[in-house]
Amino acid sequence: MRIWVICGFLAGMLFAAGCNAESPTDTSPASETAFVPASPADSLALRLYEAHGGEAWEAAPYLRFDFAVEQGEQQRVVARHLWNRTAGTYRVEWTNSETDWVALLDLHSDDDPPVGQVFQDGEEVVGEAADEALQQAYQRYINDTYWLLAPLKVLDEGVQRTYDADASTAGREVLHLSFGDVGLTPGDQYWLHVDSETGRLVEWAFHLESMPEDAERRRFIWTGETAFDSAAGRIHLHTRKESTEGNMAITMPTLDLPEAVDESLFTDGTPNRLQ
């Protein structure tokens, strides 16, 4: 995988986390047939999914968020995202070496990466340069949405769930996630710490396939819980993930689930329209 340098090596590691998000069509088993738990791990996963607003999330038409890295008192927005979840159209904007990039993806396509267009400073890019930028944009989509939506993806096809009884306590239950032959980095593993009272995620730890086998897990506290109300119910998302190792965090300084957006955003390559 190509690792984006965000704010040095540490942020590059953070880009790798989340690359197991399964399907660009964003279809979980619960959206097609009722998910029937077959194990304690399945039961915990279903509770986590529902506590974050699973059915309401499935009905949400749009997602708008920024992905940022905070170190000390400095915060840098790495990418800006907009997703039409019904049509499968996706816009991601980022700046690299003072160059403004826009990628417009069709997540319903069967290609890998999905078909789409890429614009550099407002001019469409073609050929190998476009292919490379589309791959980067797709990786950005996979990574950044997983940092935001992990609790809502625990029922995805290909996710292998185990109840970690040794790590669970009266106040927290721990769901261990590994993966079959899916995603960009199937060797990654995650441990989701679920609040026993609310059923929502409070912390996660991960060990990535790119890390040394004996490396300690990276741990992040999930804070900044935000509730979004809709006709289909309430959705709970977190805008801040704080590292337990030091003074850094992954944040979503912009986060919204709008009912409508300007659809030209999915066809227009003009930069910085999401600012």
Describe this structure as you would to a colleague:
- This protein has helices at residues 9-16, 40-51, 54-59, 128-149, and strands at residues 62-71, 74-84, 89-96, 99-106, 116-120, 123-125, 159-163, 172-179, 189-195, 201-207, 218-230, 233-243, 248-251, 255-256.
- It is α+β, with helices and mostly antiparallel strands.
- Strands 1, 2, 3, 4, 5, 6, 7, 8, 9, 10, 11, 12, 13 and 14 form a 14-stranded antiparallel β-sheet that branches.
- The protein is globular.
- It starts with 8 loop residues before the first helix and ends in a 19-residue tail after the last strand.
- Mean pLDDT is 89; it is low at 1-13 and 27-31.
Mean pLDDT: 89
Q: Give the ordered list of helices and strands.
A: HHHEEEEEEHEEEEEEEE
- Beta fraction: 35-45%
Number of strands: 14
Query: Radius of gyration over alpha carbons?
Result: 18 Å
Return the structural class: alpha+beta
> Distance N terminus to C terminus?
28 Å
Helix content: 10-25%
User: How many DSSP H or I helices?
Assistant: 4
The main pleated sheet reads as:
14 strands, antiparallel
SSE order and pairing:
Layout: H1 9-16, H2 40-51, H3 54-59, E1 62-71, E2 74-84, E3 89-96, E4 99-106, E5 116-120, E6 123-125, H4 128-149, E7 159-163, E8 172-179, E9 189-195, E10 201-207, E11 218-230, E12 233-243, E13 248-251, E14 255-256
Question: What's a concise summary of this model?
Answer:
This protein is of the alpha+beta class. 17% of the residues lie in helices and 37% in strands. The chain has helices at 9-16, 40-51, 54-59, 128-149, and strands at 62-71, 74-84, 89-96, 99-106, 116-120, 123-125, 159-163, 172-179, 189-195, 201-207, 218-230, 233-243, 248-251, 255-256.
